[in-house]
Amino acid sequence: MAEIIKKLVAEEDNDIRLDRWFKRHYKEYSFANISKLARTGQIRVDSKRVKASDKIRFNQEIRFPALIVLPKPQAKGSITTSKNDYAKLVEEITANIIYINSHILVLNKPASLAVQSGNGIEISVDHIASELKFDAKEKPKLVHRIDKETSGILVMARNIKAAQEIADIFQNREIDKKYLAVVQGKPKDSKGMIDIPLEKKDSGTGFENMAPSKNGKQAITKYKVLAHSERAALLEVFPVTGRKHQIRAHLAAIGCPIISDKKYNKEYSLYNKIAANLCLHAYELDLALFGEKLKFQAPLPKHFIDVLNFFSLNFKEKNV
Hints:
Elements: E1 4-8, E2 16-17, H1 18-25, H2 31-39, E3 44-45, E4 48-49, E5 55-56, E6 61-65, H3 86-95, E7 97-100, E8 104-109, E9 141-142, E10 151-157, H4 160-171, E11 175-184, E12 191-195, E13 198-202, E14 208-212, E15 220-228, E16 232-239, H5 246-253, H6 268-271, E17 280-289, E18 292-297, H7 302-310
Parallel strand pairs: 10-17
Antiparallel strand pairs: 1-6, 2-5, 3-4, 3-6, 7-8, 8-10, 9-10, 11-16, 11-17, 12-15, 13-14, 15-16, 17-18
């Protein structure tokens, strides 16, 4: 039988959600762990059953079992997408939930997992959305997309009202998105803005890439160099517009392609052994939803951290 842990709610934790309390003090408990333990009555607050979304009060007693086995991704930021691994995929995605309330669900999407099925892609976040309903009546809906190869923050709406609101927020650019990218070489300027129109063009491989073109759609990306070494640099990247593959195409256009980018890095094969996955991560996202200011941060995946270490690029993650 698992050890039973009993903790009193500290004054600084007054009026926060139960799942947020676990995130502060017991980070090894994933949202999936907390939800299951609460649903089965194994988490109690003042001896009463609770939900993961319930708020707790100063001096209340939280009782819960110690974890023995944790469901966790096969590799942080990497995921198996075989049809035979559906149950495992659901478990891994659930373990990567960053935040959930009655309106939205925020995932730290692993690299190599598509957001939506189609064009020969059968396994995707949308494919398993019905498994992410939890206490909602309907499955969460996609309200924006990030590339299959890109890891990081993905927001899903848990109801129609939220879906419409978030769609308007993205359309009106009332949202701040920050990406991290490891690139070959180093931009000429330590910070700057890339304003290069992009247009879809045949890459010669049967797939369309975005390429600089005076006839293309306006695309603007801001960047800042956070660290650099002789062969690579870590950039903080802010997409002002939201064109397909915008960050990847823009960084390649200034001579600093993202490491392990099959589509835009001509030297991809040389760096494949360093990182099997694209070194582009949707790191932070800020928005105001129904009057509440929200800020999310997605921890860096293992392959990204390994590349930082390989190139001796120093970066310290901060808590939000």
